[in-house]
């Protein structure tokens, strides 16, 4: 199949978006997108009706192959697993306004919930809910009957219903995060209690590469104690910035001149319900 430069630039963001949402990994999504194009080049043109659909089929199936080994990989992973944060300023090859990289289904909370889905549930949910593919095309991509795809989609929606209350308003969430930072720095516990759920849970991902909590940290007191402990041990050159990560405000923490961790949030009803601190250096962008 011949693919022009214009078609490559058009389809690459779409393939990356599918891969990143399915796998939660920037590197894997980029690698599999390239592999998709290579496989497509080897297919004769007469065997392809619609290039976009065919490329999506290859990409989805390659991701499904990866997901088949995911249970084993997750079992071997040390501690909590967070999706790889997508620091949008690093995506210089992609136009953030590009409609193919939609904001829906990109939050860390959403991507973590995807881990609770089976591989086919994950694929069908994304193709339908995020990319708005008709069931006829989805059926062709995953090689299942349309009616079966509808049932799988419904089942997947039920499984991730807990994230449907997530606030995705960037401006409002930024105000909450900035208030959280100010209250945290000045140790205004009363303000923190207004902003953070008493049952807040923090998921710390070190991947065995750096020190991190193996199990989720639960409750306001335990989470704030952990965060204060991290700050207390930080070097003098420690600083942080609020940046656009996965189309949501997140705290990017710098130590020793490089990104040390990224703290993302799940906000619902104007309260921080979950936090995700990713410290595994393999998942952090090079500053």
Automatic annotation (TrEMBL):
<dbReference type="InterPro" id="IPR036388">
    <property type="entry name" value="WH-like_DNA-bd_sf"/>
</dbReference>
<dbReference type="Pfam" id="PF04542">
    <property type="entry name" value="Sigma70_r2"/>
</dbReference>
<dbReference type="GO" id="GO:0006352">
    <property type="term" value="P:DNA-templated transcription initiation"/>
</dbReference>
<dbReference type="InterPro" id="IPR007627">
    <property type="entry name" value="RNA_pol_sigma70_r2"/>
</dbReference>
<dbReference type="GO" id="GO:0016987">
    <property type="term" value="F:sigma factor activity"/>
</dbReference>
<dbReference type="InterPro" id="IPR014303">
    <property type="entry name" value="RNA_pol_sigma-70_ECF"/>
</dbReference>
<dbReference type="InterPro" id="IPR013325">
    <property type="entry name" value="RNA_pol_sigma_r2"/>
</dbReference>
<protein>
    <submittedName>
        <fullName>RNA polymerase subunit sigma</fullName>
    </submittedName>
</protein>
<dbReference type="Pfam" id="PF08281">
    <property type="entry name" value="Sigma70_r4_2"/>
</dbReference>
<feature type="domain" description="RNA polymerase sigma-70 region 2">
    <location>
        <begin position="8"/>
        <end position="69"/>
    </location>
</feature>
<dbReference type="InterPro" id="IPR014284">
    <property type="entry name" value="RNA_pol_sigma-70_dom"/>
</dbReference>
<dbReference type="InterPro" id="IPR013249">
    <property type="entry name" value="RNA_pol_sigma70_r4_t2"/>
</dbReference>
<feature type="domain" description="RNA polymerase sigma factor 70 region 4 type 2">
    <location>
        <begin position="109"/>
        <end position="160"/>
    </location>
</feature>
<dbReference type="InterPro" id="IPR052704">
    <property type="entry name" value="ECF_Sigma-70_Domain"/>
</dbReference>
<comment type="subunit">
    <text>Interacts transiently with the RNA polymerase catalytic core formed by RpoA, RpoB, RpoC and RpoZ (2 alpha, 1 beta, 1 beta' and 1 omega subunit) to form the RNA polymerase holoenzyme that can initiate transcription.</text>
</comment>
<dbReference type="GO" id="GO:0003677">
    <property type="term" value="F:DNA binding"/>
</dbReference>
<dbReference type="InterPro" id="IPR013324">
    <property type="entry name" value="RNA_pol_sigma_r3/r4-like"/>
</dbReference>
<dbReference type="InterPro" id="IPR032710">
    <property type="entry name" value="NTF2-like_dom_sf"/>
</dbReference>
């Amino acid at each position: 199949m011949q693919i022009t430069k214009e078609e490559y630039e058009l389809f690459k963001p779409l393939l990356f978006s599918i891969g990143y949402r399915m796998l939660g990994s920037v590197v894997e999504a980029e690698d599999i997108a390239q592999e998709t194009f290579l496989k497509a080049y080897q297919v004769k043109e007469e065997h392809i009706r619609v290039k976009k659909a065919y490329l999506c089929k290859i990409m989805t199936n390659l991701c499904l192959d990866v997901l088949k080994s995911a249970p084993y990989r997750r079992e071997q992973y040390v501690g909590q697993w967070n999706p790889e944060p997508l620091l949008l300023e690093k995506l210089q090859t992609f136009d953030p306004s590009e409609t193919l990289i939609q904001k829906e289904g990109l939050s860390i909370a959403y991507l973590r919930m995807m881990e609770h889905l089976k591989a086919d549930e994950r694929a069908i949910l994304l193709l339908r809910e995020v990319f708005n593919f008709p069931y006829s095309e989805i059926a062709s991509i995953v090689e299942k009957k349309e009616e079966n795809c509808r049932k799988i989609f419904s089942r997947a929606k039920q499984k991730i219903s807990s994230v449907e209350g997530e606030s995705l308003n960037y401006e409002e969430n930024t105000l909450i995060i900035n208030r959280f930072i100010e209250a945290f720095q000045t140790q205004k516990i009363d303000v923190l209690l207004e902003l953070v759920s008493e049952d807040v849970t923090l998921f710390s991902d070190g991947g065995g590469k750096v020190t991190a909590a193996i199990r989720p940290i639960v409750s306001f007191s335990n989470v704030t104690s952990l965060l204060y402990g991290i700050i207390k041990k930080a070097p003098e050159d420690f600083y942080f910035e609020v940046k656009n990560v996965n189309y949501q405000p997140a705290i990017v923490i710098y130590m020793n001149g490089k990104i040390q961790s990224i703290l993302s949030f799940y906000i619902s009803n104007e309260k921080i319900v979950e936090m995700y601190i990713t410290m595994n250096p393999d998942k952090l962008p090079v500053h």
